[in-house]
Design brief:
Blueprint (H helix, E strand, L loop, with lengths): L6 H19 L17 H27 L3 H26 L1 H13 L5 H8 L10 H12 L3 H4 L2 E2 L5 E2 L3 E7 L5 E7 L3 H10 L1 H11 L5 H14 L3 H14 L6 E2 L12 E5 L6 H5 L3 H22 L1 E3 L7 E3 L5 E3 L5 E3 L2 H16 L3 H11 L10 H8 L12 E2 L2 H12 L6 H6 L4 H4 L2 H14 L2 E2 L1 H8 L10 H15 L8
Parallel strand pairs: 5-9
Antiparallel strand pairs: 1-3, 2-3, 3-4, 4-6, 7-10, 8-9, 11-12
Length: 499
């Protein structure tokens, strides 16, 4: 029997198809030339490169099917894995070199769907922090333009070899003239134009999704994504967001956000204190207690920030965490931060109450219809609506230990994208209002990461500490430490907005 194509695989192929469509619809002479260090700056060039990946994949798939026809079962499995690996490596190489919004697709694919074959996920995981870096001369050029001098003069010491290279910029170690060890994030020259080019084609992708999801209103969704991704290009805004989180969590017993160095930060250069620690992969191989602690810290950071700071760092991503020997977790990259107002948070709270604390199906359905997640009058019963949406609240439905698993994370993906299951009619009719666009990264990002950790805990008890409408006393040892820290700050006259 043919192995079903996973939702993430479909997403990757969809991006390649988008490139082919853009090539067909727009001729090269319609677009201005925009030469620069980031390869394929123009819409045509970047789309053509993706189209080429798609074409190679299609040709390879045709040959693969032909070879597979005459192979026995063992040989077919080997051919399938070989095909998947070649395709993943092709996509990773293309997106890693291109940088920008498209590279994020590969980053997300590497950890969102736990059902992907491990070699495929490993190939794509290279995009998390090991993408091809820019030449040292280009990084120095950006430093000169933004900070007024060569890196070796602006900083007391400068390492030209980056310690990380990602979708929008790369990070270098440096030492300031007042002897502070810092991390300097330098934006790739030309990446702003590349991302705007990618986003200009985003409407094509979501117009295509409209055929599969008739209830989806692509306009507001596209505008929200464009706004948030465009904000990532502004390192001055990222500096303000990071400073907000750093101040809120300053002195926290197990959460650390590096301090910003404003004098050495601009729109294209962000300088912060240098953070050290082990990468996410080191924790996934640790003992259960260590993984549970890491999972609880990530969970607390996301939901305390959301409900108390009214801000969500919208990029839960394995490459954005560092784990110290003392159990502290450092959170990196605040380029994609969504700030919520009170009415939006009230909706989230009302949905939690109706689903998990009072279990009121009629009320929950009324809320999702009012905010536009589901059209009024949909033929699904209240019980069917609760059954569909209830998956996303399963870990807080009742007290007791719940383990996030790879299977749970994969089911989360299917609930959103795979219409072949029992919830297809609800999925086709569902919409994603703007305030839910970035918050969906909790379902797609955080829960996938917790699934990779196999994190176990009494998430309901922990959530009740963090939900303002409950505000329960500490339920765990970490909760006690956090409570003591909040009280200590109050006593010292420096109350945290996280209380």
């Amino acid at each position: 029997m043919e192995r079903p194509i996973r939702p993430t695989t479909i997403a990757l192929l969809g991006v390649a198809a988008l490139g082919a469509v853009a090539v067909w619809r727009r001729r090269p002479d319609d677009l201005p030339a925009a030469p620069g260090p980031v390869s394929g700056r123009t819409s045509w060039a970047r789309s053509a490169r993706l189209g080429a990946v798609g074409a190679r994949g299609a040709g390879r798939y045709a040959a693969h099917r032909a070879r597979r026809t005459f192979a026995d079962a063992a040989r077919r499995e080997h051919l399938d894995m070989q095909f998947q690996m070649q395709t993943a490596e092709d996509v990773a190489a293309a997106l890693g070199d291109m940088k920008g919004a498209l590279m994020k697709v590969g980053q997300m694919a590497s950890y969102l769907d736990q059902g992907l074959p491990e070699p495929v996920r490993e190939a794509l995981s290279q995009l998390r922090s090991d993408a091809p870096p820019m030449a040292p001369e280009l990084a120095a050029q950006v430093i000169r333009e933004e900070l007024g001098g060569d890196p070796v003069s602006v900083f007391a010491e400068w390492d030209p070899v980056p310690i990380a290279a990602a979708s929008i910029g790369q990070v270098h170690r440096a030492l300031t003239h007042d002897d502070r060890a810092v991390a300097v994030k330098v934006q790739y020259p030309g990446v702003a134009a590349a991302i705007r080019s990618d986003l200009a084609s985003a409407g094509l992708l979501f117009s295509g999704l409209g055929a599969a999801f008739p209830g989806l209103e692509p306009g507001p969704l596209v505008e929200e994504l464009k706004a948030r991704l465009t904000e990532e290009l502004d390192y001055a805004l990222e500096a303000r967001n990071q400073a907000l989180f750093a101040a809120a969590y300053r002195g926290h017993p197990f959460i650390h956000v590096p301090e910003v160095v404003p004098a050495l930060s601009t729109a294209r250069v962000l300088t912060t204190e240098l953070a050290t620690g082990e990468p996410f992969e080191a924790v996934t191989g640790a003992d259960q207690a260590t993984r549970d602690r890491a999972g609880e810290i990530l969970y607390r950071f996301v939901f305390r920030s959301l409900y108390r700071l009214r801000a969500f760092n919208g990029d839960p991503h394995p490459g954005n965490y560092l784990f110290a020997p003392d159990g502290t977790v450092t959170f990196l990259d605040f380029g994609l931060v969504k700030h919520f107002h009170g009415d939006e948070l009230a909706v989230f709270s009302d949905m939690v109450e109706a689903m998990s604390t009072t279990r009121d199906p009629a009320r929950f359905r009324g809320i999702v219809e009012r905010v536009g997640l589901l059209p009024a009058g949909h033929p699904a019963s209240d019980a069917e609506v609760i059954d569909y949406f209830g998956h996303f609240y399963e870990m807080v439905d009742q007290r007791g230990r719940f383990t996030f698993t790879p299977e749970y994370a994969s089911e989360t993906m299917r609930r959103i994208f795979d219409q072949s299951g029992p919830y297809g009619e609800i999925q086709k009719a569902a919409n994603l209002p703007p305030s839910f666009v970035i918050i969906q990264r909790i379902n797609l990002g955080l829960y996938a990461i917790l699934g990779e950790l196999g994190a176990t805990g009494d998430w309901r008890a922990i959530a009740e500490e963090l939900w303002p409408f409950v505000d329960a006393p500490p339920a765990t040892e970490l909760g006690e430490q956090e409570h003591d820290w909040i009280e200590r700050r109050r006593t010292e006259g420096d109350p945290t907005p996280l209380a």
